[in-house]
Structures are given as structure tokens and as C-alpha cells.
Amino acid sequence: MTRPHRERVVLSHRRGARVIRTRVEVQEQTQVGDALVRGLVRAQLGLALRLAAVVLVAVAAVPLVVGAFPEIAEIRVAGIQLNWLLLAVVVYPVLYGVGRLYVRLAEQGERDFVRVIDDEP
User: Could you tell me the pTM of the whole model?
Assistant: First the structure.
């Protein structure tokens, strides 16, 4: 009786030495790994500063509009001054939205960083 031909079963494809070298460079904090990590930190800092500018404009817009049009401060809706209502209706949702956007974009940047290290397409 003849034996069946043996087949090698591979669960995943080997990615090569480049992946190992890149990951090791980051783990051992070599110059290349340090440059990659600094790039990630710089990208996240840039994102934070851009979104902080959006928040600053949104928060500063309410007092500027009230200062330009003082009659807005005298308008009352349900017993509440319109400028306070604008703060509650405009600024807080903007803060929440910018926070959610920051988390989503920061996580996307981290995923891109991991792809660079793992050398995935």
C-alpha cells in the first residue's frame, strides 16, 4: 500500500525580513524606528492643533457675534438669553463632534502607522 503524498499546510504567508527589521527598529528605538514614531507623534500633534483651531473659532464666534450685534443679547427664547442658547446649541455639539472626529482620525493614523511597520498594502 502506498502512502498518500504529504502536503504542507501554511496558515499565513511569510512576510519577509523587511517586516521583522522594521518592527525591531521601532521596538529597539533605533534611528529609523525613532523617526517613524516621531512622524506618528508629529502627525497627531498636527491633527490636534488643526482641530483646536476649529474649536477656538467656534467658541470665539459666539461672543464676537454678540459683540457685533448687541441686540442678540436682549432676545430671549423661553426665558433664556439667545447668546446662552447659542452656546448650548452650537458650541457644545461642535465640541462633541470635534472630539469624535479627533478620535477617529487619530486611530486611522495609528492604523496607517501599523501598516507601514507591517509593510501591508
Answer: 0.66
